[in-house]
Amino acid sequence: MKKKGLGLILTAALTLSACAGGEGESKKESGSGNKEITILSNFPSETLDPHLNYTAVRAGINETLVKINEDLELEPWLAEKWETTDNGQTWNIQIRDEISFHNGDKLDAEAVKKSLERNIEVSEAMKTALKIKEMKASGQELTIITEEPLPHLPSELVHPNTAILDSDEKDAGQKPVGTGPFEPVSFAAGSKLELKRYADYWDGKAKLDRAVFTFNEDANARTLALQSGDADIVYRPAIESINKLKEDNTIKTEVVPSLRTHLLMYNTQNPELNDLNVRKAFDYLIDRKETADSIMAGQASVAEGPFLSAFPFTPEYEKKEYSVKKTLTHFEKAGFEVKDGKVLKEGKPFSLNVLTYAYRPELPLIAQMLQSEAKQLGITINIQQVENIDEYIAQKGDWDLATYSLITSPRGDASYFLNSAYREGGAINPGKIADEKLASTITDLNKTLVEDERNKLAKKAVSIIDSERLHSFIVHPNNFAAYKSNVENWRLSKSEYYILTKDVDVK
Fold first, then answer.
1. CA atoms of 366 and 361, how far apart (whole Å)
2. Which of helix, strand or coil describes residue 277?
3. Which H helix or E strand runs over 213?
4. Whole-number Cα distances in Å, 4 to 10, 321, 369, 374
5. Among 93, 139, 252, 335, which has the highest number of CB atoms less than 10 A from its own CB?
């Protein structure tokens, strides 16, 4: 019964195209003499509007008030400092002086206020996260008053969608005006972004003259582009190519544990999936170790919950295991008929729809593995691959399950994931999860300023999520990239928020 057909799935999906020669000299080193690189990623971008998309921050166009370092600590960025005197409801934020937007206009508190006002106007998710009631601007000092105490507001201001732009400029989708080391030259949605150095950047002129971002969802194509010299930095090359790339002395590879989790979403608007026993049945049908070893080619660790075990807000979990026997037991508890190892609903075969998407190629494979396991129990799983899964699950209710991936702790804090995934109106709560005990715990967390108390409340919240199987967390994938050996001062960001910085150089 175990893993029938999995070998065929993996062979078909993970075969790497023939390798191109590794001696291709970067085309940016010849010709004009200008320093230029091409970065190829798997993040398709339909807009540069930083309030709707991460690309403008990743490409060094726009910046946020606060940033996160590689130790997951908050650092000042456009904000010089911040403080609260009333447990997190009133925040006084000092904006750095002598910073200008790309159009030469000064960055002051009024400009930041107008940017944040636009932010919560165009993004319902950020409106929900920031909970801004009122803002006041005076010179370089911005005062934010929230609807309720929000001790974690500085960490919310790390989010790329809170990036500051000149809101008086109207073409944010094509040419957002920011404060970063690079400014956009041209943008073709889903294809290509050309950038040039912003000469008056406040934190020191960028080392590169120009940069190009290109996008390709095909991991094999990204790998070949690096090997042929068509790209200098490739974000997430084909997962099974990592060892081969390490053998090429013209290429450097970087692999780090990511803050990302691959998971199975349940649409709890479906009456069957609103039943804990059905969710547990599917949870036992997931072989996490096989997923990490085979589908992820060893570039992942088994996930027992949303967060890495090293975090101080990670609790002890109920042990996860692959067990067809327990799957069938929980289907029986949910009122299904189990006959000769097959699951029936009111005497008929059971069928569900699972959504997935291609730009993380392992997710369709996880869906296929689940489909293969379910088929052996007489359960039909119909796989639908969509281009924009966030848009689809937000607008449509005709899905039951979804393979999904997200950064669960991008700022070293549990509140982002808990609020966005389990609160009403949360940006990643398309299944409309509503658990009163969990919601109450998250509310308490949001009001708590002391870190130790916050960690205790976060552990309590995650324990509820675990016991109720509100999601099935599958693996924590490694984050990996490869780049030409002549690229200097580039590093793989754990948060995945920062790709092109002022320090990136080529020799």
1. 9
2. helix
3. strand 210-215
4. 12, 18, 9, 11
5. 93
Locate 124 and state its tokens: 């319902």
CA gap 191, 483 in Å, rounded = 20
Domains contained in the chain, CATH given:
6-10+259-478 (3.10.105.10), 62-167 (3.40.190.10)
End-to-end CA distance of the chain: 55
Tokens matching residue 125: 């998710």
Tokens for 466? 């675990």
Q: What is the pLDDT of residue 221?
A: 93
pLDDT digits (tens, 9 = 90+) for 54-83: 999 999 999 999 999 988 889 999 999 999
- Enter the pTM of the model: 0.79
Structure tokens at 258: 């990511």
Q: Tell me the C-alpha distance between 484 and 449, whole Å.
A: 45
**Strand 337-339's sheet: what is its strand order?**
337-339, 342-345, 348-349
The C-alpha angle with vertex 162 and arms to 157 and 167, in degrees rounded to 5, equals 135
Q: Cα separations (Å) of 293 from 82, 288, 298, 435, 476? A: 45, 9, 4, 34, 12
Distance CA 424, CA 434 (A): 7
Q: Largest Cα–Cα distance in the chain?
A: 74
Q: Do 499 and 30 form a contact (C-beta atoms < 8 A)?
A: no
**Calpha distance 373→327 (Å, rounded):** 11
Q: At what angle do helices 324-333 and 276-284 cross, to 10 degrees?
A: 170
Residue 33: predicted pLDDT = 61
**pLDDT greater at residue 20 or residue 157:** 157
Measured CA to CA in angstroms, residue 186 lies from 40, 141, 173, 178, 448 at distances of: 16, 34, 11, 15, 45
Q: Which of 303, 312, 259, 257 is nearest to 283 (CA)?
A: 303
Are 208 and 37 in contact, with CB atoms under 8 Å apart? yes
How long is the chain? Answer: 507
